[in-house]
Amino acid sequence: MQSFQQDCVELALRKFRRGEVDRRTLLAGLAALGVGSFASDEAAAQAARKLVMVNWGGLANQGFGNFYGAPFAAANPGWTVEQDSTGPSAGRIRSMVESGRVTWDLCDSSASSSFLLGRQNLLEKINYDIVKKEDTLPVGFALEYGAAPYSFSSVLCYDSAKFPNGGPTGWKDFWDLQKFPGTRLLRRDATAMLDAAQMALGKDPKNLYPLDIRATVRKVADIRRNAVFWSSGSESEQFLRTGEAVMGIIWHTRATVLHGETNGRIKFIWPQALLQAGIMVIPKGNPGGEGAQRLLASMLHNPEPQVGLLTLLGNGPTNPRAAALVPQDLRWKNPTDPENAREQVVMDGEWWGANYQRANADYVDAITG
């Protein structure tokens, strides 16, 4: 009988870990099996000592696992950190939380999604008693429902061989098809595209928000017939690699790959780039509970792993103490290096969280119509 009870307890715990039952159902089931309330709580706690970090796949799996998951597990005996590359879209997070079957603890998301999902009560608030806010960049990187252990930028990238008299110096040049002829490359998503268009319209980068959605969408529509559009980072590289576009708005991580491949022929610039927070969020009711807050704290507070991620993926550190640890030969491609950061605009995630759905719908209509 005791063996049967143990088997049933193990089965219940496995279902809990997989998200097939929630904590309340688990505790009720354990009680029905004759497991005392203290033992039930202890069993649930043990089951939750695995944290699942979700990213978008590729090298991120290796990077987050090696530089964030492994150090946390080593410093916290009994805990394990598992990487999941399913892709933590806002829709998937919403479905998981609303179904009551949450299996994710920490998700690679965005500032705008953190505001959107947070307002819908689908995320846990960041506990800044555990996650010390002063250890992260102060503007746009420590939010109510998310915090950023890494950064990236949307930059102006161009083929310098096409412009022997000098390349573009900002978004006004990007939109100038007479002075800088050739096909432009933009993303099939309004984020960063409309911000760049607003600067091309002449608005002061230091006072960029709120964006004028109607005017910026119209500005994009002006060059639609001279533009191609990318949906993935690898696709953005390919358009510039093959010469289908001479100039594009792409992620700095992809621009640095092209710069290296072409021995510097394909260049990118930091002035007026959009510096974006790599926000991690915690789904409401995550199985690891407070452990997810502690994992996020370790990602933010320890600068060395952030420098490791820069080395592997090109993502910028967010802990100010990391800047001094970045090797000299990597500083030119680090978006949060002080010299690079001061030339950029920090994207306003709160504005995008409130306006993304409308702005993106209008943008997509403009580029496909």
UniProtKB/TrEMBL annotation:
Keywords: Periplasm, Signal, Transport
Top-level taxon of origin: Bacteria
Subcellular location: Periplasm
Main subcellular location of this protein, as a coarse class: periplasm
InterPro entries assigned to the protein according to its UniProt record, in alphabetical order: SBP
The UniProt record lists the keyword Ribosomal protein: no
Pfam family membership, one: SBP_bac_8
Family per similarity comment: Belongs to the bacterial solute-binding protein 1 family.
Protein name, as recorded: Extracellular solute-binding protein
Organism: Roseomonas alba
